[in-house]
Amino acid sequence: MKKSFFLKTGLACLFVINYGVSASAQTKALSEAMAATVMDIWQDSLTLDPENPKPVKWAYDQGVILEGIEAIWKRTKSDAYFKYMQKSMDFFVSTEGGISRYKQTDYNIDNVKNGRTLLSLYKTTGQKKYFKAATLLWDQLQKQPRTQEGGFWHKKIYPHQMWLDGLYMGEPFYAEYAALIKDGKAYDDIANQFIYMEKNARDTKTGLLYHGWDESKQERWANKTTGVSPNFWARAMGWYGMALVDVLEYFPEHHPKREALLNILDRLSIAIGKYQDTNSGLWYDILDQPERAGNYKEASASCMFVYTISKGVRKGYLERKYFKIAKHGFQGIQKEFIEDGAKPGQINLKGTVSVSGLGGKPYRDGSYAYYISEKVITNDPKGVGAFLLAASEMEIAPKNL
């Protein structure tokens, strides 16, 4: 029991002390203090932008938050967290298993993200409506348009394009659903998505991956020779890293392509460590240009890298030596981005870029000027969700790390 108590509270307290959070917030683990903010400002989880409150469509932002909440629920066993997840999904899921505000024929891989929460609800409650709803998302993946070699398009409106973001939106759900229904054929396809993305988007000099790749090389943002976008956006690589460690959790131990995924994760982790700011432990929005005017340390990516490394080490996918990257990063996150929330026992997360993409209307050209022009806000759901996941991982990290 003493060991369990330490894992649940000792490390959390260790990482809070002296980083600008009041005594009221220190009485609970940081993940729980952030969850208290989430469940207060987004009480129904349907108004993800506190400055512009309105019900959201079926959106991946919510799924990131709910996975963070789920991590705390699994650790604490508190029904309040599970009820929050269930209420959030029940807004969309009908008794027959339909999903309101979701359109499969958009073939938007972002829309697959929330399927993992549906699977958790199904596994816990046994209610068929959650499995039926998840099956709609599985069916989308079976029909999702692909590149010539078999990579999922990011969206139907972005033909011939793979984005790093899409690996997180689709592949962890794909792997978890495949494990549930025992579809062994799916794993080749899942592994290939990471293999294709790395092959087409990785820069061999830096080890970093470009945000997007256009097979057709027709987009204005695409390099006419390689098809890659112009810059290394930190959160995109964060999505990719989180996708790898989450997929590996469900990937068969003896599958011939598991080793390829582990090698990709190792190469990615080396690059993450290489571009970590030595002083702060954080990462810049554009990873390889920390000193360029306008660049800044970005919260969501920093949280995602901490989660990726910490979980990778805990699960044995990465060597223990990498944990120092996560530890330094998490200390920096607390010092730079965490502040007291509006109420006792709550915290806020500053410093998350609200959005960054490629193409679309108005057109996003992938330039440095474009990335640094996007708004940076406090308590952005993507950053908050990533922090919940990162904090939860650090709070259960083995003592000897």
TrEMBL record:
<dbReference type="Pfam" id="PF07470">
    <property type="entry name" value="Glyco_hydro_88"/>
</dbReference>
<keyword id="KW-0732">Signal</keyword>
<keyword id="KW-0378">Hydrolase</keyword>
<dbReference type="GO" id="GO:0016787">
    <property type="term" value="F:hydrolase activity"/>
</dbReference>
<dbReference type="InterPro" id="IPR008928">
    <property type="entry name" value="6-hairpin_glycosidase_sf"/>
</dbReference>
<dbReference type="GO" id="GO:0005975">
    <property type="term" value="P:carbohydrate metabolic process"/>
</dbReference>
<dbReference type="InterPro" id="IPR010905">
    <property type="entry name" value="Glyco_hydro_88"/>
</dbReference>
<dbReference type="InterPro" id="IPR052043">
    <property type="entry name" value="PolySaccharide_Degr_Enz"/>
</dbReference>
<protein>
    <submittedName>
        <fullName>Glycosyl hydrolase family 88</fullName>
    </submittedName>
</protein>
<feature type="signal peptide">
    <location>
        <begin position="1"/>
        <end position="25"/>
    </location>
</feature>
<dbReference type="InterPro" id="IPR012341">
    <property type="entry name" value="6hp_glycosidase-like_sf"/>
</dbReference>
